[in-house]
């Protein structure tokens, strides 16, 4: 009896099964992805032409803020946690996560956090309107009353992330099958281990900064109020000490996914496994000492500017190593281009372009011109959309046959890929141009010379958004049925997850597998 | 194809009537894809640096992507290519660690030089204090009796699509900041409420304006002209509507402008003594309202509650005069969005706008406030 899922709703409410929890994380994140995407479409619709047409500036600011928060905390992070839940136990030969009850709890508080965040849209004074970076004092003295709900929503999300991270670390360090040494772990497990440490290090810092805001707003302190002897720049230092590792939290697991997919479809082992591990660790270390490159224009002393500029430039080295390793893995392989591979290859190309604009942004004097323009918007969407989103999509196509036991529809997968690829580039590439030409970010209306490229970007955004419905349709069809997948699914893929049946049984590796 | 478009639009642009404001200004380029070269030495150095890094990235990109595309073309299973099995080489890893490091060092050298140049604010010949307000800029010429606010001058009807948009839509102000060419000007940048950022791309100056801090930046403009920029840091509702216009003029013209501003300031002070008629106050008050109040309280006086309350039928605008004077002159203690206008507007303007608010939007109070009442109110506070 104890071997199958419970019937009905209680299966999902009370489950401690890593696969069920992984599934819930993934569906939750997809729902948030669509919600955050709709907000992005409101933004792009308003920016379709100069003048105010659809929304007023107050609501526009709420949309940019909520879009950012929902995509970062609601779409990307839970998706990676969902993939970790599904795959890490199966990849290391463990029966489940180390802390299954906490696993249930860390998922189930998320819907409440986001219900609270989204409910602010209907409150008097509207939702948070100060940008996802919520700089004080705009987010304290000048914030709408709903800011308090925002603070508590962030607290809950942070608690969820920290619990998830603890669980992942405990699982990886304690539950590997005999013979699975650290340097034999799949890269997805490695990158998640490092990501989990980043989460534990910085989520409390985020909790700290929102608590300081709460104190300033309700309890008469002046951490960030200059009039009370506080320091608005302190907010930015604390926020970005969280914020920069956070951007790596959203990309390191993607590196792991791509490092699994490319070797499978190149039919060739990953090039430079150990250098990949060291590069990931170096990026994680560097992420703690570069935060102020987001603040080059706040008026730091020149020594500070130089330190953060040099440290930031250094990140290009381990990131470059990774890209070179992926390309070398492809080189002289025997490649096929199924949907997961298409997304993975697009990841390498477009993430590299995002890396180039990142390198440009690291040059402090040039950053004075780029900072807070659409060039920055283009940069971080190039690393997050083809980076995080494409890798998550690739992972879903790659492991979906293992999860459901059915092959997805390859043609529909390719259509999804090409529409997304075109939509994404049409949306975000022109943003480089308007940014360089002088368009600031977070404005609801703009000067006439920016009109043409904005119009193009808006068209691309709707194309990209619509193409995600193809994805949804394809996934649902695959769950319902389709061509049966073999246990291996692909041609000789590496990893323990391919040694279990498709679909993966409710409980896997109740006795540990032998690892060569 | 893009170039074709460019030419087409160039033709259209020349066919349009020339901008009425200034002849010396270059019309902004449509389909512009790059940053302006700028009109200062620093701007041009920054531009060159930007292009250098850009071309290095392009070169690396071409190299990496050609290997990748070659391999995707040749090394396919469908072409019968058998996979090699190599997967490690310490030598190769070392090479592609060391070469990028060397390239980065080569990039860092010019970047460091430029940064030192930008940070050298010594020996300025003119100091201007720039203060960011929600949602306008204030300029104080230190050592001269010149101080003014610079507001967006694009009519609301253009933003709401009721009138065709002008050439400098959203990039035009009522009072540009005037600078002499060829002089090293130092900006002392701060803010009154939230964080703003003062940015003019042609000068390559972008610096955050932070309450409680005074940041420094400098420029030396080589060519006379009009240079436009915008607030670059999200500062609330009208962040997109607080542009910056710099007018660079020859020294003689600048001196003349200074004198004229000083004379206007003196005239403004005389107005404090004058007694206005009701109609004069209403007419002046509407102008002041449209420039200073309309962003929050809206053209119909309905505001955007709860942050920006209505004036129509409000307890203050239809209540005792003293409270109305107090909130306009000193701002609101409860709601920081309501600024203290006492230090921002002349006595005549405050008197006019209060009179207007008490008699417009259906508030038929019928009373008037004279500039001298404002002066007395201010003096009684001290």
TrEMBL record, chain A:
EC top class, as a word:
translocase
**Which residue intervals define the domain Cytochrome oxidase subunit I profile in the entry?**
12-516
What is this protein's function? Cytochrome c oxidase is the component of the respiratory chain that catalyzes the reduction of oxygen to water. Subunits 1-3 form the functional core of the enzyme complex. CO I is the catalytic subunit of the enzyme. Electrons originating in cytochrome c are transferred via the copper A center of subunit 2 and heme A of subunit 1 to the bimetallic center formed by heme A3 and copper B.
Taxonomy-wise, where does this protein's organism fall, top ranks first? Bacteria, Pseudomonadati, Pseudomonadota, Gammaproteobacteria, Cellvibrionales
Q: Which InterPro entries match?
A: Cyt_c_oxase-like_su1_dom, Cyt_c_oxase-like_su1_sf, Cyt_C_Oxase_1, Cyt_c_Oxase_su1_BS, Cyt_c_oxase_su1_dom, Cyt_c_oxidase_su1_bac
Q: How does it sit in the membrane?
A: Multi-pass membrane protein
- Origin, by domain of life? Bacteria
Q: Tell me what reaction this enzyme catalyses.
A: 4 Fe(II)-[cytochrome c] + O2 + 8 H(+)(in) = 4 Fe(III)-[cytochrome c] + 2 H2O + 4 H(+)(out)
EC number(s) from the headed UniProt entry: 7.1.1.9
Protein source organism: Microbulbifer flavimaris
Tell me where the transmembrane regions lie: 21-45, 65-86, 107-127, 147-175, 187-215, 247-265, 277-296, 308-328, 340-360, 380-400, 415-436, 456-476
Gene for this protein? ctaD
Q: Does the keyword 4Fe-4S apply?
A: no
Q: Where in the cell is it found?
A: Cell membrane; Membrane
Q: In which pathway does it act?
A: Energy metabolism; oxidative phosphorylation
Q: Name the chain's protein.
A: Cytochrome c oxidase subunit 1
Q: Which UniProt keywords apply?
A: Cell membrane, Copper, Electron transport, Heme, Iron, Membrane, Metal-binding, Respiratory chain, Translocase, Transmembrane, Transmembrane helix, Transport
From TrEMBL, chain B:
The residue ranges of the Cytochrome c domain are: 280-361
Under Enzyme Commission nomenclature, its number is 7.1.1.9
Top-rank EC class of the record's enzyme: translocase
- Is NADP given among the entry's keywords? no
PROSITE patterns listed in its UniProt record: COX2, COX2_CUA, COX2_TM, CYTC
Cytochrome oxidase subunit II transmembrane region profile domain residues: 27-122
Membrane association type? Multi-pass membrane protein
Family, similarity comment: Belongs to the cytochrome c oxidase subunit 2 family.
Give the protein's recorded name: Cytochrome c oxidase subunit 2
Organism of origin: Microbulbifer flavimaris
Per UniProt, what is the name of the gene that codes for the protein in this document?
coxB
